[in-house]
Amino acid sequence: MKIALCQINPIVGYLEYNKKKIIDGYKEAVEAKVDLAIFPELALVGYPPLDLVEKSEFRQAVKKATDEIASQTGSVGLIFGTITEELNKKGTHIYNSAVLCFKGKIQFTQNKSLIPNYDVFDEMRYFDSAKKVSVFKYKGEKLGISICEDIWNDENYWYKKRYRKNPIKDLVNQGASILINISASPYFYGKRTARREMLSALTKKDKIPLVYVCCVSAQTDLIFDGASMCFDKKGNLVKIGKTFQEDFLVFDTKEKLNPVIECEGKFEEEVLNSLIFGLKEYCSKLNFKKVVIGLSGGIDSALVTYIAVKALGAENVHVLIMPSKYSSEESIKDANELIRNLNIKSDNVGIQPVVDETLSQLNTVLNSNVVSITEENLQARVRGNYLMAFSNNFGHLLLTTGNKSEIAVGYCTLYGDMCGGIAVIADVYKTDVYRLANYINRNNEIIPKYIIDRVPSAELKPNQTDQDTLPPYELLDKILKMYLEENKEFNEINKVINDEALVRKVLRMVDTSEFKRNQSAPALRISSKAFGYGRRFPIVQGWRR
Questions:
Q1: Can you give the residue range of the structural domain that contains 202?
Q2: Over the stretch 231-289, which tens digit does the pLDDT of each residue have?
Q3: How many CB atoms lie within 10 A of CB 47?
Q4: DSSP secondary structure, 243-297, as one string
């Protein structure tokens, strides 16, 4: 069977736009003389639709659009993801569904069986589980159709199953001759390799070809990389879609193809590509044409500026240099050198007069007792005011520049450096920021070498360095990764670090900084556990107080 994989980029809730994407892709598939065209999970509504699902008006519009798409089909089959619902005396049952259409109507519907409710997924809030799974006879084949999570529960691959049911096993037992999985699988580094290994093991075991189509998109913080995959019945990956862009590929299940060796690039390449794509998508889908960044001369703002230029073009990036009396000449020099290297627009506006006047006005309130942290945070908040004023005046989106290490332990200022609409590198540890900077400079020096080499400092008081407050980033990041991503407990971490006081201090800083993170901009997700929707801890709590 010849199958067209239509790897599209939908917009959540924009039904007319998504409907046209599906119809246009179907027409391309018909011209390619295939038997079947397949589109990703919830391709019509975008993923994740969240509480839009609860609006009956939205669901009615989805049904209308679903029927309109089906009416456009001829003898070539079309499978796409949508929402369906069942009305009965017990209320409304809503499903995440794959519909198979041909000859002008929906011929078969397979609802999703495994409804995830962990990490960034909260589908149990909206969708019921399929009552059954069935193969569908089509053009001499028995199609085993599944949706995303349905295929991630093979008992022979996973050490521990998440669900009791295994819909893929049920389809295989019913005689499925081709497995089709439509997906919206959020990306983080290493996820594509994990997909390949899992899908390869499944097809090798069952000796059935498998076609997996994934959307390519970024929806706020979630990034979907595409990279749709085709496997032969020996478990070989034989075709793979483009990453971080739309694609159309045709797979003939009878054709003998050479295995694809590589499916995921090196860390630096993948992370940069995903962040560039995520920022570009966020701006495009919210109709922001230009961005503004506070450029300090430090490595974090330098990296964010580089990503912004790659995502939007140098002509659409503006930076503000905002020195105080503590800003070093080297920082300002390096910031200006980066501006020249990237050919971007800039302004230099000092904050010291406003800081001094504000402190003067506050003297009566604070009884002339201004503690160091108050002055430090005031500088950050004055800078935040400058940046937000520029954003308001010119319609630029403000990008925050904090990294994951700082945000984890609260080394950031509310309403200061945390101001902004999207947190570009908030899921990138400080040590990885250096890795990315060195990778960017692998051929030419774009980020000035001194920015990378010098001791990191917020420059909010004399001779300040980050390590005045924090342990060295290599050590801090090691603790944070174990705690945040590997879900290790205190005793497990301390066995590795062997410094009880330090480990307790870092974990306490993470736990007590939740109130700050709860007010931060969405963070582009590139790891298995990012701050935001996928990590939910109480703000008011007494654990580790």
A1: 2-256
A2: 999 999 999 999 999 999 999 999 999 999 999 999 999 999 999 999 999 999 999 99
A3: 24
A4: BSS-EEEEEETTS--PPP---S--HHHHHHHHHHHHHHHHHHHTT---EEEE--S
Contact call for residues 154 and 182 (beta carbons, < 8 A): no
The answer to whether 214 is a known catalytic residue is no
> Are 282 and 236 in a shared domain?
no
Measured CA to CA in angstroms, residue 427 lies from 141, 180, 523 at distances of: 44, 33, 6
Together in a domain, 215 and 289: no
Per the document, the length of the chain is 545
406 is catalytic: no
Q: Which residue among 6, 19, 101, 148 is the active-site one?
A: 148
Backbone angles phi, psi at 239, to 5 degrees: -145, 145
400 within domain boundaries: yes
46-57 confidence digits (pLDDT tens)? 999 999 999 999
DSSP for 398-450, please give it: EEE---HHHHHHT-S-TTTTT-SSEETTTTS-HHHHHHHHHHHTSSS--S-HH
Clarify whether residues 389 and 501 are in a common domain: yes
Would you place residue 416 in the very low, low, confident or very high pLDDT band (cuts 50, 70, 90)?
very high
Give yes or no for a contact between 317 and 293, defined as CB atoms under 8 angstroms apart.
Answer: yes
The region, left, alpha or beta by phi > 0 then psi within -120 to 50, assigned to residue 6 is beta
Q: Are residues 281 and 225 in the same domain?
A: no
Judge if 239 and 294 occupy the same domain.
no
One domain, residues 500 and 413: yes
Q: Domain boundary at 204, 233, 256, which?
A: 256
How large is the average pLDDT for residues 317-344? Answer: 95
Burial 380-395, CB ≥16 within 10 A → b, else e: bbbbbebbeebbeeee
Residue pair 112/132 in contact (Cβ under 8 Å)? The answer is no
DSSP secondary structure code for residue 163 in this structure: -
Q: Please confirm, yes or no, whether 270 is among the known catalytic residues.
A: no
Candidates 6, 19, 21, 41; catalytic one: 41
**Which domain CATH number covers 188?**
3.60.110.10
75: its two tokens: 């003898």
CA distances from 346 to 82, 217, 294, 437 (A): 46, 31, 10, 21
We report the CATH number of the domain holding residue 358 as 3.40.50.620
Separation of alpha carbons 516 and 485, rounded Å: 19
For residue 44, give the amino acid letter: L
Domain count, the chain: 2
Residue 266 is assigned to a structural domain of this protein: no
Task: Say if 261 falls within a structural domain.
Answer: no
304 and 235 in one domain? no
Is there a single domain that holds both residue 226 and residue 354?
A: no
Per annotation, catalytic residue among 2, 21, 112, 404 = 112
